[in-house]
Design brief:
This protein is about 25% helix and about 35% strand. The protein is an alpha+beta fold. Strand 3 and strand 4 form a beta hairpin.
Length: about 160
C-alpha cells in the first residue's frame, strides 16, 4: 500500500508539470552527498559535492532569476535547483582527484552555489558519496531564505 501511495504521488506530481521550463531542468542524475570530479578550464581536476536537490514549484505569473535574467512563468511548472560545493583546481589527474574525494582530502573553493540541473551535471563524474553534514548547509540556508524572498537567483 505504501508503494502504491508513493507511485500515485509521483504520478500526480509529473501530471502537474507544465512546459515553462525545459524537461532537462526537471531531472538530475546525482544525489545529495554525491562526490563528483570535473576537469577545469586550466586542465586541472577538482572535487565537487552535491549538497541539496530541491524541487521548486513556480506558479504562473511568478518570477525567477536565472543567470541574472528575470523570467516570469507563463504557466504553473517546476524545476530542480541543485546546490553544490565546488573544490579547488588542485589535481593533475582524474585518478588523483577521485582518490582525494574518497579520502576526504580536497579543498573547497566555493561552499555553496545554486545551479540549474544542466549546469550542475555538465562535465561531472560520480566517484563516491559522503553524507552532507549540517555545517555544510550554512550557505545553502542563507541562499534559500533569500531565494524565497525573491532576492537571489540560480546559475
Amino acid at each position: 500500500m505504501r508503494y502504491f501511495i508513493y507511485f500515485f504521488l509521483l504520478l500526480s506530481m509529473s501530471a502537474h508539470a507544465g512546459n515553462f521550463f525545459p524537461p532537462e531542468y526537471k531531472t538530475f542524475p546525482f544525489n545529495e552527498g554525491d562526490l563528483l570530479v570535473s576537469k577545469r578550464q586550466d586542465g586541472m581536476f577538482s572535487v565537487n559535492k552535491i549538497l541539496k536537490v530541491d524541487r521548486f514549484d513556480i506558479r504562473k505569473g511568478s518570477a525567477i532569476n536565472i543567470q541574472g535574467q528575470r523570467f516570469v512563468a507563463t504557466e504553473d511548472d517546476f524545476l530542480l535547483i541543485v546546490s553544490a560545493a565546488y573544490g579547488e583546481s588542485e589535481f593533475k589527474s582524474f585518478e588523483d582527484a577521485s582518490a582525494a574525494a574518497k579520502e576526504g582530502k580536497w579543498k573547497m573553493k566555493v561552499g555553496h552555489a545554486p545551479n540549474r540541473t544542466t549546469g550542475a551535471a555538465a562535465g561531472q563524474t560520480l566517484v563516491g558519496h559522503s553524507p552532507v553534514k549540517e555545517t555544510e548547509l550554512d550557505g545553502y540556508r542563507q541562499w534559500r531564505q533569500a531565494f524565497e524572498r525573491g532576492e537571489a537567483g540560480v546559475f
